[in-house]
Amino acid sequence: xxxxxxxxxxxxxxxxxxxxxxxxxxxxxxxxxxxxxxxxxxxxxxxxxxxxxxxxxxxxxxxxxxxxxxxxxxxxxxxxxxxxxxxxxxxxxxxxxxxxxxxxxxxxxxxxxxxxxxxxxxxxxxxxxxxxxxxxxxxxxxxxxxxxxxxxxxxxxxxxxxxxxxxxxxxxxxxxxxxxxxxxxxxxxxxxxxxxxxxxx
Length: 201
Known about the structure:
Blueprint: H1 5-23, H2 29-37, H3 44-50, H4 56-73, H5 76-100, H6 122-138, H7 142-165, H8 171-192
């Protein structure tokens, strides 16, 4: 039964991604109402700072450093898997944005400049892949893996929320980004057997 649980979780995340695609966006009253709840001026300074943890210019150097650390801590295979996970995931997110073509919230309300399309949130997806992927691949101890995964999800969660505070995404964009990032990460790690610990010699 345990071997089927990761696939069940991946399936749930994929279904969530599809639901957010079809139920959210500019035409969704729920998305518009929920987006308004995050427009809290007091949170904007922190959001402007924290959102950089999802910037590609920050995550790419961190990815390269993480891959090098994985080569040292685990194996060359783990480092290569991490690079494929992050770089492949980024390409897929950009493909999704172009293929879906969802418009962002109104430009007049945005608090930072953005250039790409809206679904899914790249910041939510990239931060989830980067932090969750590293936690799964780097931490082999069952006792430490759960806290590492929890910390990764908290970081990715906060980054995604900053995009709502800054009014550059619909809530469904962020949920879709989280779902894709987590699903893609779990899929690649599962297929590659990437969480197996290196056996001591």
